[in-house]
Specification:
This protein has a single domain, classed as Heat Shock Protein 90. Helix content is 33%, strand content 34%. The protein is built from two helices and four strands, in the order βααβββ.
């Protein structure tokens, strides 16, 4: 992924116990493609994962959107949104 590659990807996690592992792997993959690695990648995975599994029995929507060199991650559950934006580092 280059800083100018735009994309959007969203999924709904049904609220099952295995959602946490699946989301962590997906986050690692997307963030690695955006140029993140090591401690920074793992910190972002933890930040997003905490929001996504806060109420594991409820469905959770996760959206990734890269536009104009920024990656936005939005986690929505029970009518509440959590967002973070980080630059796309890959060239």
């Amino acid at each position: 992924m280059a800083a100018h590659d735009d994309f959007a990807f969203a999924l709904t996690l049904p609220g099952h116990a295995h959602d946490t592992e699946m989301l962590a792997e997906l986050l690692r993959t997307v963030l690695a493609h955006a140029g993140y690695s090591g401690d920074t990648l793992e910190r972002l995975v933890r930040q997003v994962g905490v929001r996504a599994v806060a109420s594991p029995a409820q469905p959770c929507n996760v959206r990734f959107e890269a536009r104009g060199g920024e990656l936005q991650i939005v986690v929505s559950r029970a009518g509440r949104d959590w967002r973070t934006t980080c630059p796309v580092l890959a060239h």
